[in-house]
């Protein structure tokens, strides 16, 4: 609702405006009434209206003087409507000079007044739209400026510095790096909303799984600033968790007392992000830790060859132990997360290469865990260690199957699996994925070895079990069909008659004990 202030020294005129016009219908509400211009000015200072409807001739301060005084006090956005019972051209001319183009003659005609409200509402809505566009453009300009200030300061012009810096006049600043898992749009919406509720807070540097946030605060000292940013980050964390954002980690850089030094806070936030990788905490402040030099020595990758050798030739226990020992060494040495990523990536690609060399399908091993490591999707070192170990054990199991296949044994392995699981529903594609083999190759080689396809063998096994149950139990044919793996009784009946040349009830009558 747009706020309206009515100004007239005649009570009956005020009452008429209130009763004759359906203000709410057109999106307006009367927030106050005044008897003269001076009283109206005081009320405008307390609750700035969108529209003032004022009489011209009033004691103390008339309507035109009210408009003039409001403009002097910078109430530029307020719209005015002049009402008067006097058809005096001089008044109209003065009103036009003051920028007032809306004029109603007393007694006010309700239809004329409501037509005017429609026009005024459209004018206010258009002004709001233009204001939103300007605010959005200004905010985007500030975000681009802050991003450049962090990463590319030399490309900021002196004009931009002089125009934008004075508008960001806070005494303390900090950069926050927010890492998360989840939908980027949903997460960004929550963070943006929290930032909008905070004075001088901007979301910048969006990536697939992280956001950068610049936070400014006017404070007397660093202690006050630190308490304020702790309160803000806790509120941000709570909002994100409440809205379902997963696996949140927030690294808060050092606070700086000049916006020009924001890059220092950015760099310290990056360092804090490395600590989070080795830490179970989800929120960490640069102020709370002693920043150290991280180990980027490639020698820390020396265990890759040993682990890859165990992947081929070692035992499961030796492989798990070697991976755990390597990660314990990373923690002790404070190896940079980048080194840990290179280490893990080398092992994954070596495992996939071995798979390919033995004729397997590498893509079958590329599960979510492996992709998470390759895409740096893990937030801490323990998670990387667990997932790399899981991948390596899975890879080792697959390599054993590939070797058996090379010796001609994969068909027997599949046949044994089918013998155990024929009641279940599966496809050749699913079997091929389970045994890391091409589905076409599996189907053809199985047919050559056993003279029947995999699915045909499944039906044979089901029929043998169905015949046994018909002979030895009193179960109905439909119950038996479901028990041996058929969802459709007609499907079961077709296969049964194909193999026995009789219906189940006939078979039972002939062969039942």
Automatic annotation (TrEMBL):
Give the sites modified to 4-aspartylphosphate.
55
Known Gene3D superfamilies for this protein?
3.40.50.2300, Homeodomain-like
Per UniProt, residues of the HTH araC/xylS-type domain are: 412-510
* Entries under Pfam families matching the protein: HTH_18, Response_reg
Q: SUPFAM superfamilies annotated for this entry?
A: CheY-like, Homeodomain-like
Compartments where found: Cytoplasm
Give yes or no: UniProt keyword Transcription.
yes
Keywords assigned by UniProt, alphabetized: Coiled coil, Cytoplasm, DNA-binding, Phosphoprotein, Transcription, Transcription regulation, Two-component regulatory system
Q: Give the residue spans that cross the bilayer.
A: none
Give the CDD domains listed for this entry: REC_YesN-like
Is this entry keyworded GTP-binding? no
Query: Which part of the chain is the Response regulatory domain?
Result: 3-121
Coiled coil (residue ranges):
110-140
Q: What is this protein called?
A: Two-component system response regulator YesN
The top of its lineage is: Bacteria, Bacillati, Bacillota, Bacilli, Bacillales
């Amino acid at each position: 609702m747009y706020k309206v202030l009515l100004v007239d020294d005649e009570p009956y005129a005020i009452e008429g405006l209130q009763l004759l016009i359906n203000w709410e219908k057109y999106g307006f509400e009367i927030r106050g009434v005044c008897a003269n211009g001076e009283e109206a000015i005081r009320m405008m200072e307390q609750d700035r209206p969108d529209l003032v409807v004022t009489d011209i001739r009033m004691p103390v301060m008339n309507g035109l003087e009210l408009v003039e005084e409001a403009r002097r006090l910078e109430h530029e956005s307020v719209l005015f409507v002049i009402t008067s019972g006097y058809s005096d051209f001089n008044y109209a001319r003065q009103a036009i000079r003051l920028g007032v183009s809306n004029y109603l003659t007393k007694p006010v005609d309700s239809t004329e007044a409501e037509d005017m409200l429609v026009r005024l509402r459209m004018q206010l809505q258009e002004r709001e739209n233009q204001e939103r566009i300007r605010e959005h453009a200004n905010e985007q300009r500030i975000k681009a400026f802050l991003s450049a200030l962090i990463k590319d300061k030399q490309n900021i012009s002196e004009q931009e510095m002089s125009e934008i810096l004075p508008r960001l006049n806070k005494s303390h600043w900090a950069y926050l790096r927010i890492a998360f898992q989840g939908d980027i749009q949903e997460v960004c919406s929550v963070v943006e909303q929290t930032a909008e509720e905070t004075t001088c807070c901007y979301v910048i540097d969006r990536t697939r799984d992280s956001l950068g946030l610049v936070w400014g605060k006017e404070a007397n000292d660093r202690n006050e600033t630190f308490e304020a940013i702790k309160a803000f980050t806790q509120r941000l964390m709570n909002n994100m968790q409440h809205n379902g954002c997963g696996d949140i980690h927030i690294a808060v850089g050092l606070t700086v007392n000049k916006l020009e030094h924001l890059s220092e806070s950015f760099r310290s936030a990056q360092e804090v992000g490395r600590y989070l990788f080795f830490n179970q905490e989800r929120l960490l402040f640069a102020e709370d830790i002693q920043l150290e030099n991280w180990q980027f020595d490639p020698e820390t990758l020396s265990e890759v060859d040993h682990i890859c050798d165990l992947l081929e030739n070692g035992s499961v226990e030796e492989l798990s132990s070697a991976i755990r020992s390597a990660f314990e060494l990373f923690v002790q040495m404070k190896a940079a997360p980048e080194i840990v990523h290179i280490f893990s990536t080398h092992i994954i690609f070596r495992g996939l290469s071995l798979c390919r060399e033995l004729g397997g399908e590498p893509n079958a091993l590329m599960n979510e865990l492996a992709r998470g490591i390759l895409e740096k999707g893990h937030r801490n070192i323990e998670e990387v260690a667990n997932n790399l170990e899981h991948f390596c054990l899975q890879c080792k199991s697959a390599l054993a199957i590939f070797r058996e296949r090379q010796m001609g044994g994969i068909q027997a392995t599949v046949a044994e699996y089918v013998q155990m699981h024929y009641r279940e529903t599966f496809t050749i594609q699913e079997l091929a994925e389970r045994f890391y083999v091409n589905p076409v190759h599996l189907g053809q080689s199985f047919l050559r070895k056993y003279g029947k396809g995999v699915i045909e063998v499944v039906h044979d096994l089901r029929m043998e079990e169905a015949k046994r149950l018909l002979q030895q139990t009193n179960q109905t044919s439909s119950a038996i069909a479901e028990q041996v793996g058929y969802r459709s009784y007609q499907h079961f009946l077709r296969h049964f008659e194909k193999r026995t040349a009789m219906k189940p009830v006939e078979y039972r009558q002939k062969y039942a004990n």
